[in-house]
């Protein structure tokens, strides 16, 4: 069983699903959705089976490793494998896809744009997401990183809101700028490897072993960093996100912000720190500053938003600030917290966008906050899920985001108290806008748009239930994930060469374990 | 004169067979035009064209190990030379497939029934209503291909010049043969001819100066002279500069690009495909040979020149393409930008740069043919619909065609898993290997700008609703379909599995001298 190429299988199944979808007859409206759901659930089951075989205490850096030469002339191979961090994010992708398929069941009206095309794009995206988190060849990572843009581009541009064309092009151009800078840096790295090893390579382990001259590191670091900072938008590379989020369908937004943007922060942990340790150290103050600005700026701008989806986008930007902060304070608490926060943020984004999506669909698609008032009188279950989403976003203790945010702040305080205090301010603002949003939308007199609104249906509750369950589970019992993530974090910090008191599972976590 | 008896040059006819096949087919084509009845010409011309191109390619493959200087050192049949000739022949076969299309235009093929008839005259109308076709374009086409093959293997400045003219003169005529929008087509032909004649004059002047310096027109002798006396004389500087101008004109590099948009727009789509793909490949082949072989000794002279021209070409082409509203003009400016990217590889003056340039040309050539195949298909009763806004909603009306065009656009925007990505990767890598970070940064900036307008086409095709009067792509005959399928397949395969082609190019080695 262990010889099964798990990761390849996980990538092939959704792709197969997409191909099957495209072969279905054009006039079927429900069948494509069922097929898509089936394939995504199969992927999820296999991911769980694979995850159970993951050995957290293994000394190998990557598990479920596969490697085949792809373009040997350029030292490129198809090489995949996951460490704890990768595994967690693969699992996140595999979980969110069936959820968004179920939640986005009626995103595409029959008779309009192709229904099967929508779900096929989502499945293709799943293949690419799993691939990008498990690539151990930097070239393969880059290819998937770039190709991922195309399904999202079509998901926004074909199925999005009124200004979708503008948003899709803006998203793609921003991403391409990052991608091309990264390409240049990647080629630079390849040239360095060719000079040092005789034959150029993209193998992750070999690149980590390189002794890159610090000045070269500083240049190459920037190429990768800007690409990642655009992806996981850090201030000031964020302006594409609110537009993209606003014009996307909720399902697309969940995949975009919940998973795809994590590729940026994942890339920082996986590639920036180990391959460019000296440059990471050199640029750390800058990145920390950008992260802190992002936390406050995102939270403040979110506070002032009139549009729900834009509010979520800015709020995510603020949370990405936390994730980047945790990575670049170089403590094991911080990095573990960041990884956990990536997971938690994926979940909280899903609950926010999906509940808001259900709400908006019932009121003709308006995402203006002022349209809604008094939802809890008309649709109490919907309002309840909305409250849960808001609380999960503001990191209520007992929910997943809290553990992540707490660990990041703990790690930050250990390194620099001032930064920690400023970052903690972000939490206060987050609480303010999240609660204000709930108050405006759910309480008060019922607004005309809300009047007569139906409550959540079975399908919608089924889509949200696993997210809620996982959010609470991770908030109460994070140890399982922490055990998987910690070795990978330690290994990364070891490579970076920054010492830190050995990682202790913080008291709050042990408390949760009882 | 030398009092001794002149010995006849030794010619290895077997080694030169590919040239002979194509050239002879052109000559026979002319005779056919003169002696065969109107209805019998087309089948014979088609057999001649396809037969000679495929035959020449076959002989080339069989002969691929017979390398060496031929015809007293005037022609160098070496690894890169064979690669270039093979590529030119393959592209020419695809172009011939496009040229033989007769289903798209309700009136027949893409070419004027008689190019000499005045546009809009009764004469022309009569020819059209009678359903006349002209087939003179086929021998012209074969002569041009013959010139191209000679151009990329010329190892002697005079042969280079002659080859350039053999290649160009038929092209000037072909540019003016469009059946639709005749005035635009004739303007294109005239513009191409006048500017082309100027550039030929520059080239010839450069040849004269280099001859004055070295006393020979042979590449190897010039290279030896430059090695022996590295001092820069005005003759060398002037010669290199003028020679470069002549070659850069054919490439369409800035600031010698002014003809490109007008000529691309006015010529019939198959001819534009021929110019954009095959002529570009040929001109780069010759430029590489001249720079690497004859002028390799003064590379510090031309390297900075090429850096500047490469940078300008990339930036100018990309910026101006953004402002275009006509598909053919946009592709014209895009081809200018692409030439800039290839020049990055040329300017490195390393074997890696040579390989990267060749790979880029292979990728670019096939993609370009595919693009023009589709441009010829998107049309209404008045001819090709080249305004960008007329392409709105093509994705809905002709999904397959739009997806193919999307693939080509993504390839030109150098997206991963397309040939354009590997090509750009190799070119940037060759530049970074010689520490030319500046040029790569300019390349990245230009790539971003270029990506913008390539993506805009995708937006128009897929994200806009079809407007009134924007038709679906016409259904082409099997020949265009075949050319399109081949270009799309090559574009994808070179992006996913480039290994065999990269190996082929690297095994071909470097230029002989």
Outline:
The complex is a heterodimer of chains A (514) and B (513). Chain A has 514 residues and is mainly α.
**Beta content of chain B:** under 5%
Largest interface: A-B, 31 and 34 residues
Q: Strand pairing plus helix content of chain B: what structural class?
A: mainly alpha
Q: What is the average per-residue confidence, as pLDDT of chain A, rounded to a whole number?
A: 88
Structural domain tally of chain A: 1
Cα-based radius of gyration of chain B, to the nearest Å: 22 Å
Which strand order spans the largest sheet of chain B, edge to edge or round the barrel?
1-2
Oligomer: heterodimer
Helix content of chain A: over 70%
Mean pLDDT of chain B: 90
Q: Which class do the helix and strand fractions of chain A yield?
A: mainly alpha
Order of helices and strands of chain B: HHEEHHHHHHHHHHHHEEHHHHHH
Provide the number of structural domains of chain B: 1
- Individual helix count of chain B: 20
Q: What is the CA–CA distance across the termini of chain A?
A: 34 Å
Shape of chain A: globular
**Main pleated-sheet profile of chain B:** 2 strands, antiparallel
Compute the number of strand runs of chain B.
Answer: 4
Strand content of chain A: under 5%
Give the arrangement of secondary structure elements.
The complex is a heterodimer of chains A (514) and B (513).
Chain A: H1 6-23, H2 31-53, E1 63-71, E2 76-82, H3 84-103, H4 115-134, H5 138-147, H6 149-159, H7 164-197, H8 204-208, H9 214-231, H10 240-247, H11 250-260, H12 262-275, H13 277-303, H14 308-328, H15 332-361, H16 375-378, H17 380-393, H18 400-415, H19 417-442, H20 458-476, H21 479-496, H22 507-513
Antiparallel strand pairs in A: 1-2
Helix pairs in contact in A: 1-2, 1-4, 2-3, 2-4, 3-4, 3-11, 3-15, 3-20, 3-21, 4-5, 4-6, 5-7, 6-7, 7-9, 7-10, 9-12, 9-13, 10-11, 10-14, 11-15, 12-13, 12-15, 12-21, 13-14, 13-19, 14-15, 14-18, 14-19, 15-17, 15-18, 15-20, 15-21, 17-19, 18-19, 18-20
Chain B: H1 17-35, H2 38-62, E1 68-70, E2 75-77, H3 79-99, H4 122-129, H5 137-153, H6 157-175, H7 182-214, H8 219-228, H9 234-251, H10 259-266, H11 269-294, H12 299-322, H13 327-347, H14 351-377, E3 379-380, E4 383-384, H15 394-397, H16 399-412, H17 419-433, H18 437-463, H19 478-496, H20 499-508
Antiparallel strand pairs in B: 1-2, 3-4
Helix pairs in contact in B: 1-2, 1-5, 2-3, 3-5, 3-11, 3-14, 3-19, 5-6, 5-11, 6-7, 6-11, 7-8, 7-9, 7-10, 9-11, 10-11, 10-13, 11-13, 11-14, 12-13, 12-18, 13-14, 13-17, 13-18, 14-16, 14-17, 14-19, 16-18, 16-19, 17-19
């Amino acid at each position: 069983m262990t010889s099964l190429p798990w990761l390849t299988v996980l990538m092939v199944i959704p792709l197969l699903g997409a191909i099957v979808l495209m072969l279905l007859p054009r006039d079927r409206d429900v069948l494509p959705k069922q097929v898509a759901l089936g394939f995504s659930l199969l992927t999820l089951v296999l991911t769980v089976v694979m995850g159970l075989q993951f050995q957290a205490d293994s000394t190998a850096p990557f598990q479920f490793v596969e490697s085949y030469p792809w373009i040997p002339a350029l030292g490129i191979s198809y090489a995949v494998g996951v460490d704890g961090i990768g595994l967690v994010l693969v699992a996140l992708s595999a979980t969110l896809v069936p959820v968004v398929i179920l939640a986005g069941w009626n995103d595409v009206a029959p008779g309009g744009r192709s229904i099967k095309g929508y779900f096929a794009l989502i499945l293709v995206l799943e293949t690419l997401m799993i691939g990008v988190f498990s690539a151990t060849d930097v070239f393969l990572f880059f290819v998937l990183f770039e190709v991922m843009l195309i399904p999202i581009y079509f998901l926004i541009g074909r199925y999005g809101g009124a200004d979708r064309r503008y948003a899709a092009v803006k998203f793609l151009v921003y991403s391409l700028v990052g991608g091309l800078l990264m390409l240049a840096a990647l080629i630079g790295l390849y040239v360095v490897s060719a000079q040092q090893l005789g034959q150029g390579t993209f193998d992750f382990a070999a690149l980590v072993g390189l002794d890159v001259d610090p000045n070269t590191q500083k240049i190459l670091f920037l190429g990768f960093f800007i690409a990642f900072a655009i992806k996981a938008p850090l201030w000031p590379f964020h302006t594409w996100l609110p537009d993209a989020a606003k014009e996307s369908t909720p399902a697309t937004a969940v995949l975009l912000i919940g998973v795809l943007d994590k590729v940026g922060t994942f890339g920082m942990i996986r590639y920036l720190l180990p391959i460019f340790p000296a440059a990471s150290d050199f640029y750390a103050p800058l990145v920390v500053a950008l992260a802190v600005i992002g936390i406050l700026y995102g939270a403040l701008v979110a506070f002032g938003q009139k549009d729900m989806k834009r509010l979520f986008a800015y709020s995510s930007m603020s949370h990405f600030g936390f994730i980047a902060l945790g990575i670049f304070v170089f403590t094991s608490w911080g990095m573990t917290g960041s990884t956990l926060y990536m997971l938690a943020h994926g979940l909280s984004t899903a609950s926010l966008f999906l509940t808001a999506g259900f709400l908006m669909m019932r009121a003709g698609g308006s995402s203006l906050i002022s349209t809604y008032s008094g939802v809890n009188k008309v649709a109490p279950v919907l309002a309840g899920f909305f409250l849960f989403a808001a609380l999960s976003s503001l990191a209520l203790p007992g929910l997943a985001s809290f553990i992540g945010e707490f660990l990041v702040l703990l790690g930050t305080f250990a390194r620099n108290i001032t930064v920690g205090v400023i970052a903690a301010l972000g939490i206060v603002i987050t609480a303010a806008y999240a609660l204000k949003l709930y108050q405006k939308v759910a309480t008060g007199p019922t607004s005309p748009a809300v009047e007569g609104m139906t409550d959540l249906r079975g399908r919608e509750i089924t889509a949200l239930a696993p997210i809620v369950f996982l959010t609470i589970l991770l908030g109460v019992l994070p140890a399982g994930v922490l055990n998987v993530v910690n070795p990978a974090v330690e290994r990364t910090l070891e490579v970076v060469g920054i010492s830190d008191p050995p990682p202790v599972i913080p008291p709050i976590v042990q408390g949760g374990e009882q | 004169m030398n009092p001794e008896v002149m010995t006849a040059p030794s010619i290895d006819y077997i080694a030169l067979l590919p040239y002979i096949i194509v050239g002879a087919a052109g000559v026979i084509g002319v005779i056919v035009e003169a002696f065969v009845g109107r209805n019998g010409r087309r089948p014979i011309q088609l057999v001649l064209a396809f037969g000679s191109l495929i035959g020449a390619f076959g002989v080339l493959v069989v002969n691929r190990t017979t390398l060496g200087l031929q015809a007293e050192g005037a022609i160098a049949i070496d690894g890169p030379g064979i690669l270039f000739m093979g590529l030119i022949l393959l592209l020419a076969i695809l172009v011939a497939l496009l040229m033989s299309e007769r289903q798209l235009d309700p009136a027949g093929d893409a070419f004027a029934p008689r190019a000499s008839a005045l546009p809009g005259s009764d004469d022309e109308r009569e020819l059209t209503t009678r359903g006349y076709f002209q087939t003179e374009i086929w021998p012209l086409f074969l002569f041009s291909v013959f010139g191209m093959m000679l151009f990329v293997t010329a190892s002697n400045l005079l042969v280079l010049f002659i080859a350039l003219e053999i290649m160009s003169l038929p092209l000037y005529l072909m540019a003016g043969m469009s059946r639709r929008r005749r005035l635009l087509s004739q303007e294109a032909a005239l513009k191409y001819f006048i500017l082309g004649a100027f550039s030929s004059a520059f080239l010839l002047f450069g040849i004269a100066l280099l001859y004055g310096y070295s006393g020979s027109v042979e590449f190897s002798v010039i290279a030896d002279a430059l090695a022996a006396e590295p001092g820069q004389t005005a003759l060398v500087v002037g010669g290199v500069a003028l020679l470069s101008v002549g070659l850069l004109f054919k490439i369409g590099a800035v600031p010698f690009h002014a003809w490109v948009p007008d000529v691309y727009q006015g010529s019939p789509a198959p001819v534009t495909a021929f110019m954009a793909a095959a002529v570009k490949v040929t001109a780069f082949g010759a430029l590489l040979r001249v720079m690497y072989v004859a002028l390799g000794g003064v590379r510090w002279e031309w390297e900075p020149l090429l850096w500047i021209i490469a940078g300008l070409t990339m930036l100018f082409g990309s910026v101006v393409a953004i402002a275009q509203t006509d598909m053919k003009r946009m592709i014209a400016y895009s081809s200018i930008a692409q030439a800039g990217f290839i020049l990055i590889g040329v300017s490195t003056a390393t074997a890696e740069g040579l390989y990267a340039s060749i790979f880029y040309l292979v990728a670019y050539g096939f993609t370009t043919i595919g693009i023009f195949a589709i441009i010829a298909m998107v049309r209404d009763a008045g001819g090709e619909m080249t305004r960008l806004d007329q392409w709105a909603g093509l994705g809905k009306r002709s999904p397959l065609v739009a997806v193919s065009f999307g693939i080509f656009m993504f390839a030109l925007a150098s997206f991963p898993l397309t040939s354009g990505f590997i090509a750009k990767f190799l070119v940037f890598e060759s530049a970074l290997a010689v520490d030319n970070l500046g040029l790569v940064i300019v390349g990245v900036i230009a790539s971003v700008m270029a990506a913008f307008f390539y993506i805009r086409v995708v937006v128009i095709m897929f994200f806009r609703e079809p407007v009134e009067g924007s038709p679906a792509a016409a259904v082409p005959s099997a020949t265009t379909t075949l050319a399109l399928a081949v270009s799309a397949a090559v574009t994808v395969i070179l992006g996913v599995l480039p290994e065999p082609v990269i190996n082929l190019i690297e095994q071909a080695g470097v230029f002989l001298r």
